[in-house]
Amino acid sequence: MSNGVGLALFSLLLSGVSDVIFNNYSGMFLFGFGLIWTLFQWCIDQFEGNPLEF
User: What residue numbers bound the domain in which 29 lies?
Assistant: First the structure.
C-alpha cells in the first residue's frame, strides 16, 4: 500500500471518529478535514516538485 493510500485511509478513519464524537457539526468537520488534507497534499507535492493532479 502506498503512502498516499495509507494517508487517505487514516484521514477517513479520523473523520469518521470525529463525526461520531461531534455529530452536531459533522459536515463542518468533514469539510475541515478534507480542506486540511488537500492543503497538506498540495504542500508535499510542491516540496517534491510534483504537480497536483486530479
Answer: 3-48
